[in-house]
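quick one, four chains, predict together pls
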Amino acid sequence: MESATLLIFCPDRRGLVAAITDFIFRRNGNVLHLEQHVDVEHNVFFMRVQWDLAGFEIPKDKITTAFTPLAEQYGMTWRVHFSDEIQRIQRMALFVSKEEHCLYDLLSRWQSGDLRVHIALIISNHPTLGHIAEKFNIPFHQFTITKENKAGQEQAQIDLLKTHNVDLVVLARYMQIITAEFIAQFPNRIINIHHSFLPAFPGAKPYHQAYERGVKIIGATSHYVTPDLDAGPIIEQDVARVDHRDSISEMIRKGKDLEKTVLARAIWTHLGHRVLVYNNKTVVFK
Amino acid sequence: MESATLLIFCPDRRGLVAAITDFIFRRNGNVLHLEQHVDVEHNVFFMRVQWDLAGFEIPKDKITTAFTPLAEQYGMTWRVHFSDEIQRIQRMALFVSKEEHCLYDLLSRWQSGDLRVHIALIISNHPTLGHIAEKFNIPFHQFTITKENKAGQEQAQIDLLKTHNVDLVVLARYMQIITAEFIAQFPNRIINIHHSFLPAFPGAKPYHQAYERGVKIIGATSHYVTPDLDAGPIIEQDVARVDHRDSISEMIRKGKDLEKTVLARAIWTHLGHRVLVYNNKTVVFK
Amino acid sequence: MESATLLIFCPDRRGLVAAITDFIFRRNGNVLHLEQHVDVEHNVFFMRVQWDLAGFEIPKDKITTAFTPLAEQYGMTWRVHFSDEIQRIQRMALFVSKEEHCLYDLLSRWQSGDLRVHIALIISNHPTLGHIAEKFNIPFHQFTITKENKAGQEQAQIDLLKTHNVDLVVLARYMQIITAEFIAQFPNRIINIHHSFLPAFPGAKPYHQAYERGVKIIGATSHYVTPDLDAGPIIEQDVARVDHRDSISEMIRKGKDLEKTVLARAIWTHLGHRVLVYNNKTVVFK
Amino acid sequence: MESATLLIFCPDRRGLVAAITDFIFRRNGNVLHLEQHVDVEHNVFFMRVQWDLAGFEIPKDKITTAFTPLAEQYGMTWRVHFSDEIQRIQRMALFVSKEEHCLYDLLSRWQSGDLRVHIALIISNHPTLGHIAEKFNIPFHQFTITKENKAGQEQAQIDLLKTHNVDLVVLARYMQIITAEFIAQFPNRIINIHHSFLPAFPGAKPYHQAYERGVKIIGATSHYVTPDLDAGPIIEQDVARVDHRDSISEMIRKGKDLEKTVLARAIWTHLGHRVLVYNNKTVVFK
């Protein structure tokens, strides 16, 4: 079965659900799934609607054109995905440094088929984890980064990602700050895992910060990367309880499990075309 | 603004979303909120749809009749709520025994306006908590229950509930088993709080059972009461971590907080007409 | 049975457990419970030890003097509690403004005996909750606070607290900032509940901040009050999951349950003499 | 530094802490860490005490003999571990079937050094995961199990485990029931991961059971294997929230993350000699 999925947000107005579903019904589309939501604080309307294309009177390649007038009338930010495109395996690049727990976790999810994705390549600023890439037969590229060579190295990385037709960049404990120029090449397509419950403890050594502050709960946060460090739209978070008996190394040990799970969930959601970004926040459709 | 809300479940069939929304659109109804879901294991379709009645071409008192043919065609189990009815304050009866934590919690939520409900009366098998009812000016009726008088006392309770036009019965740690005859008078309108993570530890003294089994997490469960003890449709659950240092009395202390919160959430959801019951399970619309 | 409990922290040194337990054993004391911990990051030693006073060779009123040389030798910060003092009901003052959920919750815990404490008085900057104090027969004192009268009003509050021999001050959603002068009168004896997962979202309107940041989990934090706003030693925290469907008012509703539970747990722990404060953090003995 | 660690449980009696620490002090032992606990429901005393052996007047190989009289006097169940033995890398065997998530997770923890253990061999009743063993250079032994050959195959497995001097057997989603004869060879040294929140949903297909029951929270449980199926002493548990939108396959996906984490935590705790088993429950020292 072939289907289309519309993801929309726009200022909320009376009649929006009707206007959109009407567009589908009048052309004999059969709605398979519909979810909508209104952010009442900011008066923003969100919708995800999927319909069967069998019998739909507009040919697939004309749907975008056909929907545009309605979208413009309501000031929609929108995109449409088709099932064949959704079923296409997306291409992911992993950026790592020296920590391997997230890398191993993503590789095993990919190998077991739990994460339906193609891992196109692994990029690192250190050689440390090259042996893992080798074990899993994935191209591994090392880019040593210094203050002086950063711009050039990032351009080389971007070129490499483009060559590999990468859809999604995942920073799996990559310990370098990505520049705004790099980010601009992959808007809302770079996912980072930060090892704290943001906005608490942004920046370096969050477990040390958490220990010093004496919090009773630690966390991990995955978010889209924006030029504002650790301040991009949050996709997923989770937490674990600690007490005074937990040293920093205990917190790090507990935190690694959070990081693995939270990052994997964020990637899974992104790959399913289930995330809308607005106002530096996310709407995650189930 | 006046609105109508349909809650529906039925065997899933192609075209259901379209058929239902079409019913609304063709009569000039403006959909305000729509949520639907398919249980793919059992092929059951669920929907909650709310629309503005302004300009709707079917008068309010004819909507049920108008929708019936469609409902019958698809074999729907359904109900419709109107906004004036939703805004009507529902009438709740509380059944208690000797434990006061849930009673106090519900009373304070009612007094603060956090729980939009009218507490019509409190029924107990013991006089212990009568002073609290008095403090909050709520009628308190004591029914001592023995094996011999149970049928008669239950009938008297039912009569009292009917006199008070009670919409919802809440067993807030009521330590008596309700008979099937009583339950039949209030189908899916009696909510119980059980002090374990069901289906673990049904029946008496669940914290003692949990202690003996050595579980590392305890819980509480609120559910609709059915003749099958502690086996009715679950509305809400929550858990808390324990370890070997927690005695039974510590578990009871931690558990009380779970019980309060879980029961209150279940009541809140029920009062908002957000629960559908099917196959002895619940669908809880947000 | 009469017992003594020592709470100690000091720089960690070899032989500390032995030195302390030796002090007890040599005088024929029988250790009932002992818990110790070392903060390896800062080389700080913590201990809580309780022993039976029956047969102990030092009379109760001489124990402090007898222990002092050892304490000085190791540079200990320490205190001793005796069981009759622990069994003494402590006196608590509640500061409130207009929100009643924490107030009702503490009152019901006190009335049910779950919180072994005497609520000596309620202080508020508004008359709103006076009727609740009246319902529970607790003295209610209103102090309207303005920029101009703040110093005087705080002095009057302090006088009132001293008159009532208050051991513990609890800010149960009191919406005024307490001055350093006030705090200095009750060091580590003022507990606040902050409606966020600190250090995220300190200050005013944390749920609004959380909503704007788009976090997926909200929290509540209870801590000792220090002159540094919302930065005192954390005693207890808890969290709840939210998603894009939760409006600010939904967050507030969910958060209230967190606030009630977290504040009550912190008070319960404090009353049990189970909290040590050092480096602006807490050690909470079970 | 060389140290000794005693793990003890016995009927609680006055003077136990003193008797045990006295044994250490009188021989000039310096206590490094002490944790004790009393199960007040069953009057059972637990202790874990670690002391420095430098200057201790009893030679290491005489400590067991020296402690025995005291142990017998109090009816203790006890064991002593020495630091060199604790630092010895223990040898672990993994039993798997077709599911790879726990296997990959344990392998990556082992490779990264987060789990200080030697994975001696992998045993499976299917050839499916052999390629993973190969990737990580670990011996892989396949034992096809039928009703007829079960006794013989188990004996061959036991022989193999003995040949490899295995300390710990981990059932990482091994889908065979182990016989009482096998278990008797490794008492409290076989850890299983069960994919439900035990005692709810023991036996086969727990996610299907959870789905049918309509629970709002799912879990995973790791426990020592006893002849009573899924009823051994629980070491660790964790849970995740689900709602009506989660299909069985969604529950399985969420559950896998729980299984990985819960199993790894149980193994980590066991390897650290931190678990005492009594009354079919565990005491887990931090």
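The CA atoms of residues 177 and 227 of chain C lie 9 Å apart.
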